[in-house]
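Entry type: protein chain
Record version: 2
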Amino acid sequence: MSPQCPGPGPGRARLPCRVPACCTLLAVLALLSCPAVRAQTQMYVCTDRTGHTHAERYPPPECKDRDVRELNPDGSLKRVIAAPLTKEQRKKREEEEEVRLREEEQERAQLHRDRALLETYGSVDEIDSARRRDLAGRQMLIDRADQRIAQYERERKRLEDEAEFYQHRELPADLRDKFAANKALVQQQEKTRADAQLEMQKINERYDTEKHRYQELEDMARKAAEEREREAAQQQ
């Protein structure tokens, strides 16, 4: 229900108050100074889309999409009731919330990795030693594959020597099968070697990352210790 303004005369309708937008908050405070208004426990003030200011006992329906100020009986601001979010605003807020949650999850994951890194290694030298052990196992696979490839190449040379007896003639089926089997064995070892080389590359990348992060954590710990020492010295 809107505050009632005095009508123009007897028998004339009493109209709800509407304060023009050009009026300042002083006009609202003047309303609050009236005994009938002052007896109310609270007042809601807002400006609608057309620029008119409303001062009513309940949130004005004309301002359902606008911010509404709730005033105390003395005219001071109690709180601001924010306008409902538009569809675009809700979407933006949801996207911002998703980004915030994703960043928090990344921070927790990084903290977990840092803790595991410090529990696994006691120094940069230990990281380098672990790298060498992992690489040694893959290098062993590569060396073994190279040895077998060399063996299969020698066997192929013997097959080629045997095939010279069949120039201008079709090779026997068993000899063709031996050539095919030899080729398959070579391809298998070449794949084993390529896979081991790829694993070595990934191992180096992983240890490079861990070593870099470990050095960062060491540097952060050193700076924190220096800062504590400076604070302790200043307090003495």
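Comment: The CA atoms of residues 23 and 114 lie 60 Å apart.
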